[in-house]
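Hey all, quick one. A colleague (J.T.) asked me to put the pyridoxal-5'-phosphate job into the tracker so the inputs and the structure tokens live in one place instead of scattered across chat threads. No bug as far as I know, just bookkeeping. Sequence used:
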Amino acid sequence: MDKSRRSVVRRNIEPKNKGKPLVTPLSPTAVYHYQDADQLQEVYDNKSEGFTYSRYGNPNATILAEKISWMEGATSGVVTASGMTALSSVFLALLKAGDCLAAATQLYGQTLKVTGQILPRLGMQTTYFDASDSSTFSDAITAEIRIVITEIVSNPMLRITDFKALIKAAKEVGAIVLVDNTFTTPNGFRPLDYGADLVMHSVTKMLSGHSDLNLGYIGGNDPEILKKIDDLISTLGLNASPHNCWLAERGLQTFDIRIKKAQENASELAKVLLNHPKVTVVHYPELPLHPDHKLAQELLKNGFGTMVSFVLKGDRDNLNLFLRAAENIPYGPTLGDVATMIIIPSISSHRELSKEQRLELGIEDNLIRVSVGIESFDLIKEDFIDALAAS
Ligand SMILES: *Cc1c(COP(=O)(O)O)cnc(C)c1O
């Protein structure tokens, strides 16, 4: 190259290389350039494939979305900046002022804020049903309902949605069924196989698995619905960062073995807690005493999940003693991490409810929700036994 035309600002150096990288290359570029106007026009007109500007899509997001779609049995899917953007994009793309939706009473806290506060402010109304009690479906899921939303396993009580009955009720009125499958994961249940229209994830949690990013996913089998959602995501800029997608793809590679180990640990922990004198009640769908045990056996064919909730005997003082002693089990408002973590729903995720409202859901003050990790079980057991003794 003519020395006088060199500039470190210009990106005109590509090393010669016949090898293909083993690992997905990270593509942080915000923009793609083409040889001439015709080439770009073809891409805009969908006559040839290509990326143009990263708000409309980037290779790392496409690869990640495709892999999660495989796991969920979806023909198309898209990743977004977070779980909440995935969820919001469905409502904003498919509903308009005057439309109605039906939601389960036990959903992720911020989802309840969207359905109960934000959408009503925009002119949409929400009715609620108890997802594990099908007798409440017909009152909530009426002819006006456009979207029905539920989670298969609820937080933090781990109640199970009567999904076959819910699908039936929704299909009778022609509503779109959206499942937030974050808690359950495609290992536990694949909603699209049972007739759901859309499945979403907070990829932040178990799918990526290392608490180092925020991402969401939304997928389904109807290309027209997905196109509307994809359009809204790129227009409003709810798109995912390539860095996060790259990291999430790496996390996803170990999903199968992580969930297997975490689930084994959760099952063992539930049994240890069940027989402990400092514990008044244990919530885990595998336990025969769980109110939805039969439904869980019917729907969760690959095990009962990685979350366990239990009530510690005593009052706030006992709780503080437990937490101080459980110094190796971090208190953190997330789930699905490689490490075991706990939260106290009454003072975090459900603090905005009154005590009466919490008790109605079964959330006692000393309820502890455990997201069980992949450590050796001996270690987890020892930490819990020690903390319980100290409480
Ligand atoms: C965390 C979570 C969300 C929100 O996801 P973000 O990635 O934090 O935006 C939605 N639903 C469930 C069940 C979650 O656990």
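Adding what we noticed when we looked at it: The pocket of pyridoxal-5'-phosphate is lined by residues 82-84, 108, 111, 151, 180, 182-183, 202, 204-205, 214, 216, 335 (CB under 6 Å). The longest strand covers residues 145-150.
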